[in-house]
Amino acid sequence: MEITTILQVAISLVFVWLVLSIAVMYIQDWLGTQLRWRSQMLETFIGNMLADPALADQFYNHPLIKSLHSGEEGNRRPSKISSQMFTMTLFDLVMNAGKKTSILHQEVFKLRATIDQLQKNDKARADAQFELVMVAARKALNTQAGEEALDNALANVKLELDNLAKINPLLQTAVQQTLSNVKITTQDIDGILQTVTEARKQNSGESEQAPSTTMDQLRDGLAIMAVTNPQLKQALDSLFLGVDQYGTKGEDALSRGRQNIEKWFDNGMDRLSGWFKRSAQNISIIIGISVAIVFNADTLMIGQTLMKDPVLRNALVAQAQSYSQKPEGEATSMDASQLKAIQTELTNMNMPIGWVGAPLDLTGLPFVQADPTQNQYCTMWPINDKSFYGLSMGGKCYPIINAPAPNDVTGILLKLFGLLASGIAAAQGAPFWFDILKKAVNMGGSSAPQPAKSA
């Protein structure tokens, strides 16, 4: 076999794999957008960092993060958050950890566990009411319009809690316990703040307390988190450890602490990216094999056909040459209509893809008789040369093409291998195959047919 033929077959196969890879990327991007894989992974990651579902809810409903939400109703959480945005939001949450609105929000959030214990009917009503409670709690948390507005927001939360308590006696007990916990936690936090304030006065040697700096507010918030979120406090304490050394005070210490948290977040995002890439690769293989099966893109059959058909081989090489001249961004990203156009071109070239051929009109001929050996008929299990291997629909027989007979075990195994090879190849990504296609076309040089030039 000539080296030119082998090279042309290789170029043609790479081009077919490239098209399949583009289809896989398109499907995967669409699924990722619809199922919000990236945003869900990021949400899980941030939830693990904050070590508290209630605090994670506060984080995502913070005005800075809400500004990153998308969707018509702003209910799609972001798939990417910068380390600076994360740090600023976290600082604000820590500095406000001792506020009654924050404590109330965290205690109310715990009611979800009680609601999950209810029977089906009560649970449905409680779920709906709990959402109203959380909306009121979030509104109170973000209220910045003065004491009167804050009192009204807190009153609204308590009103919604009363409505929730009426649904079930179990909830009534849980709501009462929640309000009691808020009161106890507030008292504990007041005691912590009083101790911290006295210690700060003693350290400064002044009878009057100096105006608190941002760093002081962060320290106070961290002290409060010993009650509300000890796990996150431990992590942040380690990140703030030593920021006051070398004589750094005030803004310098704050800047060092901010840098440590940003580095902590960026390191976590690097691990998240690796996790996402591994997950995406596994999903790509599943989608790739599915695409190969749906389109019956059998690498072995395509390769055999290309070896025997120089016309098809030359046509595909010409297409590949023309395609390799495109910019990578344009060549490796297509919409549905462009993919459909390429599929049509490949079909018109009589590529051995697809499962069903053009229908055969068998009108007037019985499909199944008492003695089928005497008549033409359409069946998925042909038993003689008068049997059409196909699907019978609407008086026509749609022949099954590019597929072995059901009793051909060897053919079935080869078909499965060919489809698996196509699926794995398609999962490698369009940029990978586009780069190989350009190199293969350049290697082909004058041995490959040149694409036709427009007059």
Give an account of the 3D structure.
- Mean pLDDT is 84; it is low at 364-374 and 450-455.
- This protein has helices at residues 3-35, 37-50, 53-60, 63-66, 83-95, 100-109, 111-115, 120-141, 147-165, 169-204, 214-228, 230-240, 251-295, 299-308, 310-324, 328-331, 336-348, 409-426, 430-444; strands spanning 360-361, 377-379, 387-393, 396-399.
- Among the domains are: 53-228, no CATH class; 356-400, no CATH class.
- It contains 19 helices and four strands.
- The protein has a four-stranded mixed β-sheet with strand order 1-4-3-2, with no helix packed on it.
- The longest helix is centred in the middle third of the chain and has 45 residues, at 251-295.
- A hairpin with a 2-residue loop joins strand 3 and strand 4.
- With 455 residues, the chain is mainly alpha-helical.
- The chain is 68% helix and 4% strand.
